[in-house]
Amino acid sequence: MPLPGIFGQFGHMNLRFIETFLWVARLGSFRAAAERLNTTQAAVSNRIASLEADLGQELFERMPGGVRLSAVGQRAIVPAEDLMRSAMEFRVAVGRSEQLRATVRIGTIDSIVHSWLPQFIERVREQYPGLTLDLDVDTSRGIAREIMERRIDLALLMGPVLEPGLRSVDLGQMDCAWVAAPKFGLGGRKIGLEDLVDLPILTFSRNSDPHIWLVRQFEELRLRQPAISNSNSLSAVLRLAIEGVGIALVAKPVVAQALANGTLQLLDVTPPFPPLTMHAVFADHGDNVIPSALSEVAALAAFEAQG
């Protein structure tokens, strides 16, 4: 049966069934689709069964541990995405963006939380007040894993994430800074990494890109590795640095207030630490309209923060 014949029947079908079909196809199991759609596996199974009964075609081949698309199901993916995208665009155009209702799962990192995340959320509330944002703060590696597994809708992180089916949008750069409490007496003079080997260092989580870069710099200069304490909470690093527990290497927005009030001093360290590259990442399929739109909002907030 040609595709127009199959999808000509979609007019009287529940769009939720088509959305369910797409998520089962993307994730390869009813269980994973149920988790993603916040429903039960039985509900997902019933929706797919109803859809297949209406079409008179099997969309999936059932296998131990999951499902895979049938030949008809494979041909149905693009038209189904087109239908969902058109439905979303229709709701935005007719119902206006103020009446768009959805929950968007967003994963982000501490550096962004302390920088332009509040401005991003304000912009989203102004443009899409019907959206509910479900925020998860983790390391970039953790957030990248979540977006690759489709457990979140939008990732705001150090990127890009180079994975088939994902799109990364450039959000510019974020400067890093070496800082220390005044008691160390390091402010106002030039410092090399060799001056830091006997000092405790506080910085990004272990095996993150910034941590790996720092370790390699000491190795390339054939310097003894200093005592490096890692944390996935930059708030914790900030507090410890202010208390004089160690000198810190962090994203500059995290320490802006502490630098302004003098509780931390900016250090002039050579070689300078490279800026962090930020990206918005989302699944690149045709009906993924909201995360795509929010990535543009994130880009505006990020570039405004960069001055």
From TrEMBL:
InterPro entries, per the entry: LysR_HTH_N, LysR_subst-bd, WH-like_DNA-bd_sf, WH_DNA-bd_sf
Domain of life where this protein originates: Bacteria
Keyword vocabulary terms for this entry: DNA-binding, Transcription, Transcription regulation
All residue ranges annotated as the HTH lysR-type domain in the record: 13-70
MF (Gene Ontology): DNA-binding transcription factor activity; transcription cis-regulatory region binding
Keyword Transcription in record: yes
Record has Transcription as a keyword: yes
Family: Belongs to the LysR transcriptional regulatory family.
The protein's name in its UniProt record: LysR family transcriptional regulator
Naturally occurring in which organism (per UniProt): Gemmobacter aquaticus
